[in-house]
Amino acid sequence: MTKVEKFARTEVSAVEAWSQRVRSVGGFIQLAFAAFWLVRGSFNLHGGTRAPLALAFMIVCGAVLTYGIVATRGTGPRLTSPEAKRIERSVTIATIIELVAAFVLPVVVSAAGRSDWVLPSIAITIGPLLLWLDHEVWIPRLRLVGWVLTIGPLVLIATMSGSSLAATTGIAAGAILLGTSAAGFHDLSELRRAHARP
């Protein structure tokens, strides 16, 4: 049995297992959104820096993706205990609510004639989801990020408009999600190293 297989079979609580899954599966989802936001934000900038900056962001996201694939191997067991099932239902429902809100809010603000609010309206939906995930599986980092993504877009809407609002929201939210996913992958990498020690 390899060290990875031994790690995967280590007994963990439902909360710890889902904490690992949120860092792993959730980390890849955050990374995908980060890539989208960074590229979208870059192309709202003016001048010739848009394409090179978007390319640089994609290269960084690719590096984090590679790191994540290695770091998360064998982590995040899917338990079947009643507590694990309860957490799974809670996380699934919260994720569905966020996705619905992320589709509905942009339609609402666009219909109201505020197309520059589309990106901030999506960012606002991510914050409460991260706060709920921290509540369920105790990842304090997500609490800070959740509040930033909940309050930050409102501050940007109050102080900016047009393409500058879209660029700032996209790049800022993308950078935050990129950092959060990379930090989660690092947590799992450290956990694997700790279990691999004799």
| Number of structurally distinct domains | 1
Q: Helices and strands, in N-to-C order? A: HHHHHHH
Low-confidence sequence ranges = 1-9
Amount of helix: over 70%
**Secondary-structure-derived class:** mainly alpha
The biggest beta sheet is recorded as: none
Shape: globular
What's the mean pLDDT score?
Answer: 90
- Spatial separation of the terminal alpha carbons: 15 Å
Q: How many β-strand stretches? A: 0
- Measured by DSSP, the beta-strand proportion falls in under 5%
Radius of gyration of CA atoms, rounded to a whole number? 18 Å
Number of helices: 7
Structural overview:
With 198 residues, the chain is mainly alpha-helical. The chain has one domain. 82% of the residues lie in helices and 0% in strands. The chain has seven helices and no strands. It has helices at residues 3-8, 14-42, 50-71, 82-111, 118-137, 140-159, 162-196. Helix 5 runs parallel beside helix 7 (162-196). The radius of gyration is 18 Å and the shape is globular. The chain starts with a helix and ends with a helix. The relative contact order is 0.19. The model is unreliable at 1-9 (pLDDT under 50).
Short description:
This protein is mostly helical and 198 residues long.
List keywords for this structure.
198 residues; mainly alpha; 82% helix; disordered N terminus
Blueprint (SSEs and pairs):
Layout: H1 3-8, H2 14-42, H3 50-71, H4 82-111, H5 118-137, H6 140-159, H7 162-196
